Amino acid sequence: MINLDHVTYQYPFSSRCALEDISLNVSAGEVVLVTGVSGCGKSTLIRLINGLCPHYYGGSLKGSVRVCGRDNKTEKLSDISHRVGTLFQNPESQFFALGVEEEMAFMSECRGTDPNEIDRKIADAANRFGLNSVLKNTIHELSQGQKQKVGLASLMMEPLKVLILDEPTGNLDPESTEDLAREVQKLKEQGSAILVVDHRLYWLKDVADRVIVLEKGRIIREGTFNDLDPAFRSKVGLREISVTDCRDTLPVPMSASHPILSVRDLTFEYPGRAVMRHFNMELPKGICGVFGENGAGKTTLARLLTGLNKAKEGSFAIRGQKLNQKECLRHVAVVLQNADHQLYMRTVFEELQTSLEAAGCKGGSRAA
């Protein structure tokens, strides 16, 4: 179903190859996991299979990429998309509609599916991915994890022969990750060829047939999970292949005698939906973890603490000194789940320089 034969690919204006001499196969009813540290070539591999490279990105391609027996080089991108379904790492980049229900229906509508059948498929997918409570919501009201679920549900509503999942568990809570593993197993049993690209390994331990490890654009190991011994994982920077859920063993939060940040009676609502009511929290010096299922309000809390979302009610204090919520951003820094939302400049240098200058550093280029 997927065949790469001695593939080498180089992006336009790049001085080096993103992938070199890659050969791999994924058969019907097989799940292959591709892993490796950031920058090893995983995203490029996906783009070659779904046709974005070179049809969209351009560049130089040697070797052949065949999907369902057809050479991607001679196929139109629109035709390739009828055989390959891709869940991108950032699901926002593949949404077309404003509403959840409309987004889930989009692919089926484009294929001319009967409206009654679309409704049935939406109901089934919403049950499978726990989306019934947000079907009438707009996309921008969802948490990043819920957006991931919408992307997955939309992709799996149509019977595709080849599925590519790019970091599909990146925004999912542990329970949703387990649910996804079961869905992947079902699709495997139905004969789909599935390629999963992920840093997380543990959730596919009992599902993946093979594991491929990339490093600097080359395959350095191909085998099963048994071939990912601790010494090898440590050497190439891979994660553990089994993890323990430590949530029930974490210490109970205690009231801080000298909290750095305090929140009292915090209330916030999206249109027609309350997210927080009279929420109280103290953050002492050190590291605190906030856990909860997708949609529980974790990202909303982070945005409220920085003043990015406006609270309906509540008070804020830094080291006991009360302040207006608008002032929070002067004291609290945030790295958003989707970093693209807070990057504005063309280069890394300019991004760092602009941040330093905004914080009061002077000296133009010397600020960096």
Number of strands: 14
Q: What percent of the residues sit in helical stretches (DSSP H or I)?
A: 25-40%
Q: According to CATH, what is the class of the largest domain?
A: Alpha Beta
- According to CATH, what is the topology of the largest domain? Rossmann fold
The sequence of SSEs as H and E is EEEHHEEHEHHHEHEEEHEEHEEH
Query: For this structure, what is the CATH homologous superfamily of the largest domain?
Result: P-loop containing nucleotide triphosphate hydrolases
Structural class: alpha/beta
The best one-word shape is globular
Low-confidence stretches: none
The rounded distance between the terminal residues' Cα atoms is 49 Å
Strand arrangement across the biggest beta sheet:
6-7-8-3-9-10
Question: In DSSP terms, counting alpha (H) and pi (I) runs of 4 or more, how many helices?
Answer: 10
Overall structural domain count = 2
Q: Which architecture of the largest domain would the CATH scheme give at its second level? A: 3-Layer(aba) Sandwich
Q: Kindly provide the radius of gyration, computed on alpha-carbon positions and rounded to a whole number of angstroms.
A: 23 Å
Kindly report the average pLDDT value.
Answer: 89
Which percent band covers the strand fraction?
Answer: 15-25%
- Largest sheet entry: 6 strands, mixed
